[in-house]
Structure formats: structure tokens, C-alpha cells
């Protein structure tokens, strides 16, 4: 009887471990990466990279792009010329410096050029969470009424840009 009482905590621990293991095996691990498509822009306020007071991500005219980037992100460096070309074509792009030091973001843009109509700072990544960002670069196509029309994960190239912009209303 004493032996059984001594083993009860161990038995309970083994059963608990089995329950957690079984639950994790049958858990749905699918991430809905495009959950915000068709929904309004999240109502987040972010400070400007230039030190301006916090403001909404919405530009007011559209369609436009919202691009989450970071100076530490190699694919962001690769996609940057495509963003510069879009800006030269007159496409409005809002940049969001994602989990980046503002000084590093400023240096990144000073070195490579600034394709953004405005640059906002999401230092802690909370706005990225609201948007559903899994990691930079990610780009959202937004309608003039603030609805997210499409999302592109990863660096933009000519084909992905055309696909993304073709979804504008």
C-alpha cells in the first residue's frame, strides 16, 4: 500500500505527459497566413520613423501597399529595388519598420533609397501581430476604403508585384 502511494505522483505525471503528447499530435498546426484578407486594416497607431506622433497605417487614398520590412532582413534587401521601381511608377507604399531599431531603419533607407510615402515604426511587433505578420518582408494591398485586398509573404519580384496589384479594385 505504501509503495502504491509513493508511485501515485509518478503515475499521474506519466498520464499527464501522455495526454499532452496525444493533444499535440492531433492539434491543428495550420497557420492562417491570409486571415486578414477581406477585412479592414487593424486600427493600430504607430510613431513615424521621423519621430512624428503616432498615426494610423491608413493613407486615405488607394489602392496602396503596406510593406513590413527590417534592416536586418536579407529578403528585404533583395526586394528593395522592386519597391523603388514601384514608387517610381507612382504606387503609394507605406513602410512599417518591423522589430527594428529606428536608427538602423533610417540607415537602411538612407543607403538604399526610400520608396515609402511614410515610414512607421513597429518596434515591438504588436502591429505586425494585428496584421498577421509571420516575418518580414510581407506586403499588403489595401483599398481606398481601408480593406485588405491581398497579402504577399516574402520578397516581391516582378511576377508577385503584378499578381498583387491585379487584385486591386
Show the helix and strand layout.
Blueprint: H1 2-25, E1 45-46, E2 55-56, E3 64-69, H2 74-88, E4 93-98, H3 102-112, E5 118-122, H4 126-131, E6 138-142, E7 148-153, H5 158-165
Structure summarized in a few sentences:
With 169 residues, this protein is of the alpha/beta class.
Can you put this structure into words, describing what you see?
The structure is a single chain. The protein starts with a helix and ends with a helix. Strand 3, helix 2 (74-88) and strand 4 form a beta-alpha-beta unit. The protein has 169 residues and is an alpha/beta fold. It is elongated, with a radius of gyration of 22 Å. The protein has a five-stranded mixed β-sheet. The mean pLDDT is 87. The protein contains five helices and seven strands.
Features:
38% helix, 169 residues, two-stranded antiparallel ribbon, alpha/beta, Glutaredoxin, 7 strands, 5-stranded mixed beta sheet, 5 helices
N/C terminus separation: 75 Å
Name the CATH superfamily assignment.
Answer: Glutaredoxin
How large, in whole angstroms, is the Cα Rg?
22 Å
Q: Assign the CATH architecture.
A: 3-Layer(aba) Sandwich
Order of helices and strands: HEEEHEHEHEEH
- Mean of residue pLDDT values: 87
How many distinct folded domains? 1
Here the CATH topology equals: Glutaredoxin
| Low-pLDDT regions | none
- Count helical runs: 5
Percent strand = 15-25%
SS elements, strand count: 7
| CATH level 1 class label | Alpha Beta
- Helix percent reads 25-40%
Give me the side-by-side strand order of the main sheet.
Answer: 5-4-3-6-7
Choose one word for the global shape. Answer: elongated
Strand count, sense and barrel status of the largest sheet are: 5 strands, mixed
Estimated structural class: alpha/beta
